[in-house]
Amino acid sequence: MAHAPAAEAIPFLMERAAEDPRETIRHHAVHALIKLRAARELAGLLPLLEASPPVTWAVHLALLEACRKLGLDASRFLERLREVDDVYVQDALSLVP
Which Gene3D superfamilies does the annotation name (predicted)? Predict the structure, then answer.
């Protein structure tokens, strides 16, 4: 996807970020969407913040980074994360606008 036009890359990455069973693929897809500044599309993924992580908090952390870098409002999806006992999650939450 490195050389694909954004119009092709964004839908492909959105599908991977939302549905791929492999957490690392989802994590990297979110980061690629951040690089493409796909704010509207990433906003559609924010409900994933309410889900339990399959293995790690990597996807959640990537989505929180998207909020910080692209100014996305995730406030209605953060209540559960505020109770998580993980220093990286709490650090990321402290940086979200």
Answer: Leucine-rich Repeat Variant
Alpha-carbon gap, residue 40 to 4, rounded angstroms: 19
Contact 49, 60 (CB under 8 A): yes
Q: Looking up tokens 């990297």, which residue turns up?
A: 28
Contact predicate 92/61, CB 8 Å: yes
Q: Whole-structure pTM over 0.90, yes or no?
A: yes
Cβ contact 95:74 at 8 Å: no
> How many CB atoms are located within 10 Å of the residue 38 CB?
23
Token pair of 97 as six digits: 């606008």
Q: List helix spans (H) across 1-97.
A: 6-19, 23-35, 39-43, 58-70, 87-95
Q: How far apart are CA 60 and CA 9, in angstroms?
A: 21
